[in-house]
């Protein structure tokens, strides 16, 4: 066990855990941040995605001791109670079925739009292709990303 | 309201809730030990078991179903708000918690709306009737002299005389007794409204559970954390039918957080204080196992040879009309083909999981099990507890496609919690879930057809072999995996089932039937059979609707045209007007696609990308569906991309067209995933498909450029009465394998009779045909 400092969604935390512990379990079990979820533990599905240094990061395979930069989780996307445009687009398009994977879809899409505010459909597919959904909401996820991109560019939904 | 109800209500309240409310609810939920029970079944003859009116003039509906992500909870609220005459926004819905909701069986078979919507409408109508009587008495006017709008009752003659539902009930109970011999028949005196008088039903209202799913506030079954909870992981046998011969506890008992190794028979689990500790200890535990004397199954490569020669465990009596054998013998053109569908896994998005709390001499299981009532009975029997000391709280979970009808983690968590007398969370790992989850049965289908000299279909013979023996039930205490591994056996394995095609074709000589066959050993094996989303429909529809295209090609008839001819050959119809509605969905799909009439295959194009279109139709119960796909086949790589997908769908009364469209869209893509990707691979002792690479699933890149959903709801004959709601959960995925196979044939002229249409299989077929 070791004392480690984490900065998550603008707040500082100190945790006392084995440094090899995957970040996912520390977020969920020690910090009560349950937006990221366990899907595979292998970095294959994306359910555990958080944003670190502007990159979509699979927290199920990242040792907590390597998470030295600020971490953003799904809970940290809304600002002053106002949903991020992606989250709003998700509701407007009624994207989720079960919803379990949608943390990964939304967080991966956030990184995509941060880097490329007006992606083509092909760029959306390419950026999202390693993020799985077993309910097969893919078509609606892609539609919602394009809606959010329009809104963020100041256009109509 | 107890604390479990509080959290269930709070996080279903969706857009109404505030973060502050949720925090309070969740904190209470976390901290308190469970109340000791007993947990008696809610009395279905009491109106109070179904509907509670609160003082603030809101209502809570109690529905004994579970919502697997298709929005049935919102749908029940729409129907019940209409019958109760209350604003939709003033209602909430609690689902599938055994001590709070009547046992309506949880979910399954796409029957939530079909079977239960009449029940929920009747109880809500009875509550309205009761409230109107109470209101009339309060206002001092006859009951026929009051009106109600959004839970406010007024005197017709004097609108200033008013009273709300909340004022009338004021925290008290209805104490109204309902009648009906069983839960499905329960009713009051009130009549339900005519469909045209329903205000919310039929509207595209937003689902109430989605806000929390996109902002991270929904509390899922994986999020439950009773005070003092510890973590468990299973240690699975390394191969099927293995016998445990030794456990070396010293391999783990010095690890941090170690609590206990638990074992009985061939079941082994490890418990640690923290989650990552349990994962590490389960991986580190040294165990030794003895292999079975004979191989428990053939390899996946040899499966269909095995199925072809295995002795059936049961044979269904064929459904016949005319004399198919004689007609085939004398036919001018004879067609014969064999279709093959492998085992396909449920491969839930996350592994089985449950949290069990044994405090105060009771057992509460928090689970995403879709049949929470079945799990309650299974857990009680398995643990030897009285039923009223066990309750199962259903919460949201990852898509499992029926895996949670036979969920294993609930009994495991409960058994471990009982052994260590602490709350414990069980979670299956990815490779464990993909290998050891329940499987949809493999099918081998032999098809024969005969055409007369004019090309008319005169003989049809469908014979399926379904590898479904040992099909497990719903958390039965003697078939759930922990029980199997502990050596518990039922009197006999589940008989399993086969399936015949669902179509309304008129063929003069027809014979359809099937056999069930068994693997060599049905117990303690990862090739366990369970209800996969539409258990047998995709398999039978793949064979039947692909072969119908073979018949169309042999007679040089357009595939849509042949279907319409066979449907139109007889004018009689059944109670569900299935013949007329079959024709309607086929025509609607063809219109939406822009179908041009011509036989398949089309003349082969030059270039690397060959395009084609394919159609398939079927029904499930009384829900009719027709699908058209357009594919691009890459002749260099064998890759199949589905560029367009059209689904025309008729499930009768539409409760919520928005959530229905999403359900059809996603369900169709699930059918596409099974057509293109999904197959369980195994050697003679273990499953070798273990993760998302070795058991692939659909991805973003497979998504069609365009999807058209056409709701053809209702009888095409306007002179006939409104249809009730039928099931919308599964029908849409049945035709996808056939629609894709037919489109590949249209594009390439090559008929592939084995799914999934993975690149290597398609490429080999194209090369073999010289394409």
Structure description:
The complex is a heterodimer of chains A (157) and B (771). Chain A has 157 residues and is of the alpha+beta class. Chain A has helices spanning 23-30, 85-92, 102-115, 121-128, 138-152; strands at residues 2-8, 11-17, 49-52, 55-58, 71-72. In chain A, a hairpin with a 2-residue loop joins strand 1 and strand 2. The longest helix of chain A has 15 residues, at 138-152. The radius of gyration of chain A is 15 Å and the shape is globular. In chain B, strand 25 (609-620) and strand 26 form a beta hairpin. Chain B is built from 19 helices and 28 strands. The longest helix of chain B has 28 residues, at 112-139. Among the domains of chain B are: 33-202, Aldehyde Oxidoreductase, domain 4; 300-346 and 439-529, Aldehyde Oxidoreductase, domain 4, CATH 3.30.365. Chain B starts with a helix and ends with a helix. Chain B is 29% helix and 21% strand. Chains A and B meet through helix 1, helix 2, helix 3, helix 4 and helix 5 of A and helix 6, helix 7 and helix 17 of B.
Using only C-alpha atoms, the radius of gyration of chain B works out to 28 Å
Number of domains of chain A: 2
Structural class of chain A: alpha+beta
The helix-and-strand class of chain B reads: alpha+beta
Question: Measured on Cα atoms, how large is the radius of gyration of chain A?
Answer: 15 Å
Oligomer: heterodimer
Span of the ends, CA to CA of chain B:
68 Å
The CATH superfamily of the largest domain in chain A appears as Beta-grasp domain
Model regions low in confidence, pLDDT < 50 over at least 5 residues of chain A: none
Largest interface here, residues on each chain? A-B, 61 and 62 residues
> What is the H/E order of chain A?
EEHEEEHHHH
State the strand order across the main sheet of chain A.
Answer: 4-3-5
Instruction: Enter the CATH topology name of the domain at 33-202 in chain B.
Output: Aldehyde Oxidoreductase, domain 4
CATH homologous superfamily designation of the domain at 33-202 in chain B? Aldehyde oxidase/xanthine dehydrogenase, molybdopterin binding domain
Shape of chain B: globular
Total beta strands of chain A: 5
């Amino acid at each position: 066990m070791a004392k480690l400092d984490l900065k998550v969604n603008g707040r500082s935390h100190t945790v006392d855990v084995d440094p090899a512990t995957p970040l996912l379990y520390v977020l969920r079990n020690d910090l009560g941040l349950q937006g990221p979820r366990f899907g595979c533990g292998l970095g294959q599905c994306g359910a555990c995605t958080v944003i670190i240094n502007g990159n979509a990061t699979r927290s199920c395979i990242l040792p907590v001791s390597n998470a030295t930069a600020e971490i953003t989780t799904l809970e940290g996307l809304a600002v002053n109670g106002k949903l991020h445009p992606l989250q709003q687009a998700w509701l407007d398009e009624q994207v989720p079925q079960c919803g379990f994977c949608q943390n990964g879809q939304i967080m991966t899409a956030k990184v995509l739009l941060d880097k490329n505010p007006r992606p083509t459909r092909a760029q959306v597919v390419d950026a999202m292709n390693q993020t799985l959904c077993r309910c097969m909401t893919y078509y609606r996820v892609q539609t919602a990303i394009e809606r959010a991109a329009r809104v963020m560019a100041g256009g109509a939904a | 309201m107890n604390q479990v109800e509080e959290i269930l209500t709070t996080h279903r309240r969706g857009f109404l809730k505030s973060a502050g409310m949720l925090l309070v609810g969740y904190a209470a939920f976390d901290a308190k030990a469970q109340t000791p029970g007993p947990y008696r079944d809610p009395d279905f003859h009491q109106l109070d078991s179904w509907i509670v009116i609160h003082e603030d003039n809101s209502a809570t509906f109690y529905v004994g179903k579970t919502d697997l992500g298709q929005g049935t909870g919102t749908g029940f609220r729409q129907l019940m708000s209409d019958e109760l005459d209350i604003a939709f926004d003033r209602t909430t819905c609690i689902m599938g918690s055994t001590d709070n909701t009547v046992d309506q069986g949880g979910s399954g078979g796409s029957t939530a709306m079909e079977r239960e919507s009449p029940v929920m409408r009747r109880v809500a109508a009875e509550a309205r009737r009761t409230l109107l009587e109470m209101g009339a008495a309060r206002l001092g006017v006859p009951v026929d002299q009051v009106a109600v709008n959004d839970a406010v009752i007024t005197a017709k003659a004097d609108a200033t005389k008013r009273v709300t539902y909340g004022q009338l009930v004021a925290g008290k109970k209805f104490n109204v007794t309902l009648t009906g011999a069983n839960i499905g028949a329960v009713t009051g005196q009130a009549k339900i409204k005519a469909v045209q008088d329903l205000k919310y039903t039929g509207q595209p209202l937003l689902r109430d559970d989605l806000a929390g799913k996109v902002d991270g506030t929904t509390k899922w079954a994986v999020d439950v954390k009773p005070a003092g909870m510890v973590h468990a992981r299973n240690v699975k046998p390394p191969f099927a039918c293995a016998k445990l011969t030794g456990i070396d506890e010293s391999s783990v008992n010095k690890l941090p957080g170690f609590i206990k190794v638990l074992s009985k028979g061939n079941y082994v689990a490890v418990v640690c204080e923290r989650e990552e500790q349990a994962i590490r200890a389960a991986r580190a535990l040294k165990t030794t196992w003895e292999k079975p004397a004979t191989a428990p199954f053939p390899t996946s490569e040899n499966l269909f040879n095995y199925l072809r020669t295995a002795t059936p465990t049961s044979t269904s009596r064929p459904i016949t009309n005319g004399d198919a054998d004689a007609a085939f013998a004398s036919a001018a053109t004879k067609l014969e083909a064999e279709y093959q569908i492998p085992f396909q896994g449920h491969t839930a998005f996350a592994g089985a999981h449950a949290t069990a709390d044994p405090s105060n001499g009771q057992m509460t299981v928090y689970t995403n099990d879709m049949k929470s009532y079945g799990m309650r009975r299974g857990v009680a029997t398995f643990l030897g507890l009285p039923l009223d000391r066990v309750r199962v709280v259903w919460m949201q979970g990852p898509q499992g496609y029926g895996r949670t009808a036979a969920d294993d983690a609930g009994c495991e968590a409960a058994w471990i919690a009982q052994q260590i007398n602490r709350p414990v969370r069980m979670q299956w790992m990815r490779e464990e879930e993909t290998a050891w989850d329940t499987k949809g049965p493999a099918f081998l289908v032999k098809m024969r057809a005969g055409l007369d000299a004019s090309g008319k279909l005169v003989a049809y013979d469908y014979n399926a072999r379904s590898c479904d023996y040992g099909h497990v039930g719903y958390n039965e205490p003697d078939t759930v995996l922990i029980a199997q591994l502990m050596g518990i056996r039922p009197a006999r394995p589940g008989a399993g089932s086969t399936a015949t095609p669902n179509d309304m074709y008129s063929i003069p000589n027809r014979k359809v039937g099937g056999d069930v066959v068994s693997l060599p050993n049905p117990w303690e094996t990862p090739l366990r059979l369970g209800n996969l989303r539409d258990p047998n429909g995709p398999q039978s529809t793949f064979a039947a609707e692909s072969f119908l295209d073979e018949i169309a090609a042999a007679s040089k008839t357009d595939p849509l045209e042949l279907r319409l001819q066979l449907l139109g050959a007889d004018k009689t119809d059944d109670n569900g007007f299935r013949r007329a509605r079959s024709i309607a969905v086929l025509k609607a799909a063809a219109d939406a696609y822009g179908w041009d009439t011509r036989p398949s295959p089309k003349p082969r194009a030059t270039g690397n990308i060959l395009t084609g279109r394919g159609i398939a139709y079927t029904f499930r119960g009384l829900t009719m569906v027709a699908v058209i796909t357009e594919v691009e086949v890459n002749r260099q790589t064998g890759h199949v991309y589905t560029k367009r997908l059209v689904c025309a769908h008729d499930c009768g009364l539409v409760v919520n067209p928005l959530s229905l469209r999403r359900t059809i869209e996603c369900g169709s893509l699930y059918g596409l995933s099974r057509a293109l990707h999904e197959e369980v691979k195994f050697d003679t002792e273990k499953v070798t498909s273990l993760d998302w690479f070795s058991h692939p699933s659909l991805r973003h890149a497979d998504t069609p450029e365009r999807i058209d959903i056409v709701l053809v709801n209702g009888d095409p004959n306007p002179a006939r009465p409104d249809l009730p709601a039928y099931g919308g959960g599964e029908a849409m995925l049945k035709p996808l394998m056939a629609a894709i196979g037919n489109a590949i044939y249209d594009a390439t002229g090559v008929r592939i009779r084995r799914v999934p249409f993975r690149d290597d299989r398609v490429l080999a077929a194209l090369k073999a045909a010289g394409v």
